[in-house]
Each structure stands twice: as structure tokens, then as C-alpha cells.
Specification:
Oligomer: single chain
Structural class: mainly alpha
Helix content: over 70%
Number of domains: 1
Order of helices and strands: HHHHHHHHHHHHHHHHHHHHH
């Protein structure tokens, strides 16, 4: 590569601006404009690409709506009722409260689509429940909460899958279906690790919930439990698109919290809207920057060149997937997941297509990799969130999360080598891939 070429200088500008503290989205826009200037192209193309990408992509509307639904659930009492329901189901076993942590993440996975929303919402409650009376160490509770939160964006709905669909043109509906089995597999692997550790460390057994209380607990949690049914049922029955389902999810969460549970006030509604707007603006700028930079990457013909290079070396689809796993796991240690999805994946998608890799299978493998990056040292975002919540050193959380991380990597290897685990449900619903 010519180090003085417009593209090289644009990359240097993006890295330099990022190191000086400019948000990566802004840095990508600045670097892309520099490229257009040096290449003698119309710099107004940057604004054109940004506007076309942001305002003509219907699926992007799903992102702020899923974020809003997660905020409303955390504001209302839906979270507490679901935790009580999970405790009634599995809390009676050794290490039962730790198992509750995983079960609640699986249930919330069908509602919010965000790992960070899961950790920041139910994570605080689980941390308090697990550490009161010294039942579990704060570092173990924080590590488990971070690990279980990873499940959220794998089981539908999933914000990362919406973003992947944006850059790959894969079907969101089939991507959502493809994430169900891998997400459950991740949850089961975590529960197996808990069972082993619980026996080794002699974790406490919670007092069983009396059988006579189970119907009442279930009834109180039932409206919240119906949210995934309404959401996914609407998508796969053909009544709603995934974007419309995101709007329904936000409306359903608000109506249940405000009218049935009566736990949402005008003040809390305002806070939820404000928080959602801030998160959406942050993600929106990142997407905008990536859209402009991806235009530059396309002009440079990098995706096609990479595809031709790998084909010339007769790389098999399986070898390509293994290479992608290694690269994404390493990048996940350093970069934020949305950045990887928007910058790296558009370069890899043409190669995946050229090698005959199914884009739904590829998308689920990519999303699982990116979710593992959230809990991979040294810069896993969920690790820092839980360090702040639990008030314990990062090194203690890293030590306790390693068994869960290895189990999840094993699950990733399984879905990589056995595509049928991902494609079984999509094919059941008519997917021809």
C-alpha cells in the first residue's frame, strides 16, 4: 500500500483524530472528506452518502425503538416481576440465584435486543440480589451478569443484527430466527459452568418458593412474559415488519408499565425518552460516519480485491469462517462492536458471498463474535460497566469471567462448524439458503 495515497492518509487521519478523543463517527467523516479532497472528488458526496444512508433506510428505525423499549422496561416494574418469576423457577437449586441471572437474560433477550441495556438494567438488581448477605462475591456476580448479558442481542430481537442487515442486505427476519438456537446454546453453556462452580464453591441454596405462590407470581409476570410472544409472533406471522415490531415493543412496554402495573410516571417517561435519544444519537453518528467511510472503501475497490485475493488462494468457506472468528475476537478486544459491524463487516461480506458462505449463518457468527468482544479483556465494554456497578477491580471480574468466556467461545466454534444449528429455524420458516 502506498503510504502517501489518499486512502492511507484518510486512515491516518481517522486514527489520529480518534486518539485525540474525537468520537469515531466524527473521525470517519473527517477522514472520508480528506480522502475526497485529496482524490479530487466532490466533497459534497460525503453529505449525500450520509443523508441517503440515514434517511432512506427503513430498518434503521428499529434501533431507537428497541432502545426505547429497553429503557421503559427498566424504568417500570416489568424487570422486578420477571426476576421474581425466574427465581420461582430455578432459585431452589444450588447456585440457583446465579442460574436466575442467566434465565432472566434469556427472557429479556426477547425484549430489548441490547446487551448494555440488560447489564445496566437488570444487572444492577442481580448484583444487589446476589451479593446481599455475602451469598456470592461481588466479582463473581459482576462477571456472571456481564456474561449473561451477552445473550441478549443473539436471541431476537437484536440491534446488532439490524445493523448487520443494513450492511449486508440479509433478511432481518431470518437473522432473528437464526439467533435463537445459538443464544440458547450460550445460555446452556453458562448454566453448565454455574453448576460446576456451584458444587466446587458450595454456593448457597435459596429458600424454595412455596407452590401455592407460583400461580400468583406467574400471573403478575404474565403480561411481561407475553412481550416476546407478541413481538416475534407479529414478525413471523407476517403481520409486522421487524421495524414495526420494534415500535410495537416500545408501545407494549409503555402500556403495560403505565396502565397495568402503574409504575411509569410522566417524569420517568421523560427520562426514558431523553436517555433513548442520547443513546440513539451516539449510535446514529457512528452509523453516519461508517456510511461515508464505506463509500470511500467501495471507491478503493477493497471488498472486491479482498474477495479476489482469498479466492486466488483457494480458501475454503470453513477456513474463511475460522479466519473471521480469529480476526473478530482479536478486534473485539480493542474496538466497540458497532464499529466492527459498520467498518470491517462490509469488507468481508463480498468475500463471504464469493466463497458461498450463507449470509444468515455468517451474520449470526459475526454477531456472536462481537458480543464476546463486550466481555473480552482488556477493553470489553460490559466489563467496565460492571466494574462501575459492582465497585470491584477489573482484574477480579476478568478472573471470574474466564470460565464463562471459554464456554461461550466453545459455543461459537460449534455454530461455526455446524451451520445447521443456525439455519434450522430459518429453513423451517421457508428460508432457501
Amino acid at each position: 500500500m502506498n503510504l502517501t495515497s489518499p486512502f492511507s492518509l484518510a486512515i491516518l487521519a481517522i486514527v489520529t483524530l480518534s486518539l485525540f478523543g474525537l468520537p469515531i463517527g466524527h473521525a470517519m467523516i473527517g477522514g472520508s472528506i480528506l480522502y475526497l479532497f485529496l482524490a479530487g472528488l466532490d466533497m459534497g458526496t460525503a453529505a449525500e452518502q450520509l443523508l441517503n444512508g440515514m434517511y432512506t433506510s427503513y430498518i434503521l428505525l428499529a434501533v431507537p425503538l428497541f432502545i426505547l423499549s429497553a429503557e421503559i422496561m427498566n424504568t417500570g416494574s416489568m424487570t422486578e416481576r420477571l426476576l421474581r418469576f425466574c427465581d420461582a423457577m430455578v432459585g431452589r437449586f444450588r447456585g440457583g440465584l446465579a442460574q436466575v441471572n442467566v434465565i432472566q437474560s434469556i427472557i429479556f433477550a426477547g425484549m430489548s435486543g441490547s446487551a448494555i441495556a440488560d447489564a445496566a438494567g437488570t444487572g444492577k438488581m442481580m448484583q444487589k440480589m446476589m451479593t446481599q448477605d455475602g451469598k456470592y462475591t461481588p466479582s463473581f456476580a459482576a462477571a456472571l451478569t456481564a456474561a449473561s448479558s451477552v445473550i441478549g442481542p443473539i436471541i431476537p430481537p437484536s440491534i446488532p443484527m439490524v445493523v448487520y442487515a443494513l450492511v449486508s442486505d440479509a433478511s432481518i427476519g431470518y437473522l432473528f430466527l437464526g439467533g435463537v438456537v445459538p443464544g440458547l446454546l450460550m445460555g446452556l453453556s453458562q448454566m453448565a459452568i454455574i453448576a460446576v462452580i456451584a458444587k466446587k464453591r458450595n454456593f448457597p441454596v435459596e429458600a424454595p418458593v412455596p407452590v401455592r405462590e407460583l400461580p400468583g407470581i406467574t400471573i403478575r409476570a404474565f403480561p411481561a412474559l407475553m412481550m416476546p410472544v407478541v413481538l416475534l409472533g407479529g414478525i413471523y406471522s407476517g403481520v409486522m415488519t421487524p421495524t414495526e415490531a420494534a415500535a410495537v415493543a416500545a408501545a407494549y412496554a409503555y402500556l403495560i408499565s403505565a396502565l397495568l402495573y402503574r409504575t411509569v410516571t410522566l417524569k420517568s417517561t421523560y427520562r426514558s425518552l431523553l436517555s433513548s435519544a442520547r443513546t440513539t444519537a451516539s449510535i446514529g453518528m457512528l452509523i453516519a460516519g461508517a456510511l461515508v467511510f464505506n463509500y470511500v472503501v467501495t471507491i478503493e475497490n477493497i471488498p472486491d480485491a479482498l474477495a479476489a485475493y482469498l479466492q486466488a488462494h483457494e480458501l475454503s468457506p470453513l477456513a474463511f469462517l475460522i479466519l473471521v472468528n480469529v480476526v473478530l475476537l482479536l478486534l473485539g478486544c480493542l474496538l466497540e462492536g458497532t464499529t466492527i459491524l459498520l467498518i470491517i463487516i462490509p469488507v468481508l461480506v463480498p468475500t463471504a458471498q464469493a466463497l458461498g458462505v450463507d449470509l444468515v449463518h455468517f451474520g449470526v457468527v459475526v454477531v456472536v463474535n462481537i458480543m464476546l468482544g463486550l466481555v473480552t479483556p482488556p477493553y470489553g465494554l460490559l466489563l467496565f460497566i460492571m466494574t462501575n456497578i459492582a465497585k470491584v477491580p477489573l482484574r477480579d471480574i476478568v478472573r471470574d469471567i474466564l470460565p464463562f468466556l471459554f464456554a461461550m467461545i466453545a459455543s461459537l466454534a460449534l455454530i461455526t462448524f455446524v451451520p445447521g444449528l443456525v439455519l434450522f429455524l430459518p429453513r423451517l420458516f421457508g428460508y432457501q439458503g
